[in-house]
Structure formats: structure tokens, C-alpha cells
Write a structure and sequence with these properties.
The protein has 177 residues and is mainly alpha-helical. It is 46% helix and 7% strand. The chain is built from seven helices and four strands, in the order ββαβααβαααα. The two termini are 39 Å apart. GO terms for molecular function: nucleic acid binding. InterPro entries: RNaseH_sf, Tc1-like_DDE_dom, Transposase_5. It comes from Tenebrio molitor (Yellow mealworm beetle). Pfam families: DDE_3.
Length: 177
């Protein structure tokens, strides 16, 4: 943006355009995905704590996963975020008989959900929309998530054995994933 004003008038209110905020919005989202289903995506209003996370697992993850895996025949994957590894959360998984994939600390981030988030952001950037408020941002995120082709999440999840093999072959170093 070019601004034309007389010399030494930089801070004269007549030549200053006020911005009330940066125009940026951020939201906290949580989602799950599997080879059989894009899962669910939800907006989390609160700061994520172990208490909030176990509530998400109880009220959102379990009911929606059971639709896809009625026999509870699945392995849950998550990173080593302190909230995910908190005693309360570990105890919750144990009490509910949910098998959680062991994830070494300082490991490469191979979780397919990260690729899903990147695809959502890429889709939103393609549309070049400036959001006026958080509701518009939430709508755009949800639409981008649901617009991803079914084969995308299926292929991502089915790539897990190869991802793990590549990390093993690279002695835990970086891979293309």
C-alpha cells in the first residue's frame, strides 16, 4: 500500500489509517481420521488441558469412532503433547480399554492428521478469502475438511506402515514424510 502525505506528517491523524486489530483469527480444532472415515472435526473453545482432552475423548471421539469401529478394533495414535501423555489421560485410555500407539519422544511427526491439517490449510489458501470473524474461519475449516477426497485420508492412513519403516531405515532421522 502506498501512502502520500506531506513531509513530517507521518503521525498526523489525518494521514493515519487506524486498525483495530490485526485481522487475524485463530481457533483450536480437534479431529480424528482413519482409513475408513474422515472422522470428525470439532472446534474447541477452551484451552486444552488433560481434563478437557478426556472430555473430548469421552464425548466426541468414542461415540464417533464406534460408528466406524463398533467392535472397538482400532489403535489410537496421538503425539507426545504433554496433555496427551498426562496421567489422567493415560488412565482414561486404560480404563476404557483403548489401545494407544506408543510414540517415542522426539520422534518425527508422522501422524497422518498433520497431513490432513496441511491439506485443509492449502485448500483454504487456494480460495484466498479474508475472514471477517471466527465463525467464517470455522465454516471455512469445516468445509475444507469435508471437501477432501475420501481417497486422500484413506491413502494417508494406509501409508503408516511405510512411514514407520522409512523412519526405522533412517535410524529415526528425517524422511520424506
Amino acid at each position: 500500500m502506498r501512502v502520500y502525505r506531506p513531509k513530517n506528517q507521518r503521525y498526523n491523524p489525518k494521514y493515519v489509517h487506524k486498525n483495530d486489530n490485526s485481522g487475524r483469527f485463530s481457533v483450536n480444532m480437534w479431529a480424528w481420521v482413519s482409513a475408513k472415515s474422515p472422522g470428525v472435526i470439532v472446534h474447541i473453545e477452551e484451552r486444552l488441558t488433560s481434563h478437557i482432552y478426556t472430555r473430548i475423548l469421552e464425548e466426541i471421539m468414542v461415540p464417533s469412532v464406534r460408528v466406524v469401529y463398533p467392535e472397538d478394533n482400532f489403535v489410537f495414535q496421538q503425539d507426545n503433547c504433554p496433555v496427551h501423555t498426562a496421567h489422567r489421560v493415560s488412565e482414561w485410555f486404560q480404563n476404557h480399554g483403548i489401545n494407544v500407539l506408543d510414540w517415542p519422544s522426539l520422534s518425527p511427526d508422522l501422524n497422518p492428521i498433520e497431513n490432513m491439517w496441511a491439506a485443509v490449510v492449502k485448500s483454504m489458501k487456494r480460495h484466498r478469502v479474508r475472514f471477517e470473524n471466527k465463525d467464517q474461519l470455522l465454516t471455512a475449516i469445516s468445509e475444507a475438511w469435508h471437501d477432501l477426497p475420501r481417497h486422500y485420508f484413506t491413502n494417508l492412513c494406509l501409508s503408516m506402515p511405510n512411514r514407520l519403516l522409512k523412519v526405522y531405515e533412517a535410524n529415526g532421522e528425517m524422511t520424506k514424510y
